[in-house]
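anyone seen this seq b4? input:
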Amino acid sequence: MKFSEIITFSAALATSASASPAKPNVLSISHITSSTNGVTCTFEGVDNSVTSLSGAGSVDVGPPQTQVSGHCSKLWRRNAQPQRRNTVFVTFEGAADAEFSQHFPTDGTPTKIWNPLSISHIQINQAGVSCTFNGIDNSVTSLTGPATVDVGPPQTQIEGTCHA
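predicted toks r here
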């Protein structure tokens, strides 16, 4: 599947253009739409903004600006991966229904989080597991499952540890 087949950019004046790695496009982008399920994409704007989109849907770019880079990867859905022994499945929720999930060992091993999505809520469904997550702007968020907690202020999470 070509990158240009799955993502559409919309410019501020309702002009649309397909992303193409062969030709740079300097339009100021205000909206990104994907018609492909199972893919998450993250884009970086000329003013260092980060915009992420998971699955089929659309997201506003704020403020509108030229997008200078982007990458897409397979989206892991909740319950798509089997529950592994000695791990917990944690869901990180951002704005506009964007989310991603990741397994964390329950032995206290610090685990890096590479997704740059700004996180508003963290969810654990497994009872008796306690986790602590560190944000890029020094937030510390702790929870014991099953629970969903707010991240304050919302920010990219960079590392987590969990204990059963």
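The radius of gyration is 17 Å. The CA atoms of residues 113 and 158 lie 5 Å apart. kinda curious what u guys think
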